[in-house]
Design a protein that fits this description.
mainly alpha, 67% helix, 4 helices, single chain
């Protein structure tokens, strides 16, 4: 396990590697479909939990850079999380309506 990976995250990483190592391509594809469906169901909640942590740290006066270092993400990612942006730039709300 990498020193900078939490035990819980490492378990998920290990499970994904085991999934990729399934020999039978159909069995592997079925397993991948199950994981992706589960991920889609849980991703919004996981993003919200991460956003709550960012907002809490910001309320405590922690800088964006310190939050980024603590969460192991980029400065821009922390700023996007705080704004509630979770997707690609094309999905972010525009500041003024396009004509």
């Amino acid at each position: 396990m990498a020193d900078d990976t939490t035990e819980e995250a490492q378990k998920v990483i290990d499970a994904l590697q085991q999934l990729e190592a399934i020999d039978d391509p159909v069995e592997r594809a079925v397993a991948i479909s199950e994981v992706l469906a589960h991920h889609e169901a849980h991703a919004p909640k996981l993003r919200e939990l991460r956003r709550e942590a960012v907002l809490s740290m910001r309320a405590d006066g922690v800088s964006y850079r310190k939050i980024a270092a603590r969460l192991k993400v980029s400065l821009g990612t922390v700023q996007n999380i705080e704004r509630g942006h979770a997707g690609a730039w094309g999905t972010k709300p525009r500041s003024k309506p396009s004509e």
